[in-house]
Design a protein that fits this description.
By secondary structure, the protein is an alpha/beta fold. About 50% of the residues lie in helices and about 10% in strands. The longest helix has 17 residues. The protein binds zinc ion.
Length: about 230
């Protein structure tokens, strides 16, 4: 008898350990309580999006239900149009409406400097600074073996071809300061060593407005090693 209780506890703990994610736990109850197959289908589809669990998906679907029907139709139509008509710039691989994006087509932007970024969000962030007048090369991801993303899944070959033409003088890496970002930089750097091109990375250090005591050791250590003259910092 005592042995049976013990075994039951172990089984319960094993099940519980699989359900420690509260969202997953909730979704079991939601799944069981669905009163409509249409509602279940809508929740299932939305919960496939990154960062959205079943609970959030249900909240969004119920929100749409309270709004005018036209709003849902507008969202569906915009997403469908985006997915079917979107174009990737043939030069930098950024998302665009035309074969060559506005940045690549701008004659005032120099092709001698190319900034390597992961995706369009980084292009937008750097463009907002107004400090870069070169062109971009969007990798459409970074090397991440755990996610099954290898060099062949990125636009590295087209970058090498671009550098091979000899017009690019500097390649600037603006990738995340993560293991995946560093791996990607290391890999691409090796592909470019044969060419006469300056290779640089964006500076890594203490963000403006942050207090020193809250910086992690790696960031603070790099900031000290890569210190700059005071005149350049103002
Ligand atoms: Zn472009």
């Amino acid at each position: 008898m005592a042995k049976g209780i013990k075994e039951n506890r172990i089984i319960f703990l094993m099940i519980y350990s699989d359900l420690v994610n509260i969202d997953n736990l909730f979704c079991i109850f939601v799944f069981m309580d669905f009163s409509s197959k249409l509602l279940e289908l809508a929740v299932d589809q939305i919960s496939q999006l990154p960062g959205i669990g079943k609970r959030t998906a249900l909240r969004l679907v119920l929100h749409l239900l309270k709004q005018p029907k036209e709003q849902t139709e507008g969202i569906v139509s915009a997403l469908s149009l985006f997915r079917s008509k979107i174009i990737f710039c043939s030069e930098c691989h950024n998302i665009a409406d035309t074969k060559i994006c506005e940045i690549c087509a701008n004659p005032r932007r120099t092709y001698e400097q190319i900034c390597i970024v992961e995706d369009i969000r980084d292009v937008m962030a750097i463009e907002n600074t107004g400090q870069f007048q070169g062109k971009y090369h969007v990798l459409n991801g970074i090397i991440s073996p755990i996610d099954g993303i290898g060099p062949q899944d990125l636009t590295i070959t087209s970058l090498v071809e671009k550098v091979k033409l000899g017009k690019v003088k500097e390649v600037i890496f603006a990738l995340s300061a993560t293991m995946e970002g560093d791996t990607t930089i290391f890999y691409i750097n090796k592909q470019l060593t044969a060419f006469d091109v300056l290779i640089s990375t964006i500076a890594r250090g203490i963000p403006v407005g942050d207090e020193l005591e809250y910086a992690d050791e790696v960031t603070l250590g790099r900031s000290i090693l890569k210190r700059i003259p005071y005149e350049d910092s103002i």
